[in-house]
Design goal:
alpha/beta; Rossmann fold; five-stranded parallel β-sheet; two-stranded antiparallel ribbon; 7 strands; 39% helix; 12% strand; disordered N terminus; binds magnesium ion
Amino acid sequence: MTVFKSSSIVAMLLALAACATTTKEHDPNQDLGLLWVKHSAEYRAITTQVYRDASDDLPRLIEDKTWDAMTGYGKPSNLPPAVILDVDETIVSNVDFQLTFDRPFENHKLDTWSSGRDAVAIPGVQSFVSAARSLGVTVFFVTNRPCERMAGNDDPCPQKQTTIDDIRELGIPVDPEQVMVADERPDWDREKLSRREYVAKTHRVIMLIGDDLSDFIACVRESPNGACAIPATSASRAEALEKHKDYWGNGWYILPNPMHGTWTSFE
Ligand SMILES: [Mg+2]
């Protein structure tokens, strides 16, 4: 076994600290994840594939009245079917924002960017939403864009209208009641479970679609929210993944996002 003297450890720590202070600032044009999403045909192929797989599964999951994407198989339900989609990097691509915004990320920077240009669709989403609606499925959009007041605007949640505008810019008509923004109601915190449960009071949720583990499973964040009492760990996230393994590609459909997400908090 290698034994380090304390003076060696101090020297190593000083060397590491020196490295940290000389690390170059993050350059998005060197970030492989960002470049892959922006430029690769493979990224667009995957999103198209995910939405096609979800579309193909619609008739089966509509037909099976015992299926519920939140609780699995259970008692038959006569509630009308619904699907829940996340927004950013699930239906709307923000890769151009990710390539250009001044670090660090702040919500108002995305608000300003989103409201200044037409939204760009994640390939495949429009066909999926059309297919779902043509089969009588209600589509809900649950986003963690938070309500934040903006100077000179009386609206307590201008981000809701920005999100509705973004969805409509994709060519997807939407009822504002079907768009659910974080903090819009007192119990709609960043933990999306309370909003999924709100939808489930009136609908049988047959599908969840998102780009982050938290779009599917509660309490997977490093910083707990809402009903989650303790921080998640890599191990707890792996356990949650294993516990729900039968859902992937069967009611749950995840899109790739190597740019940002709850995963970045874990090693
Ligand atoms: Mg997202």
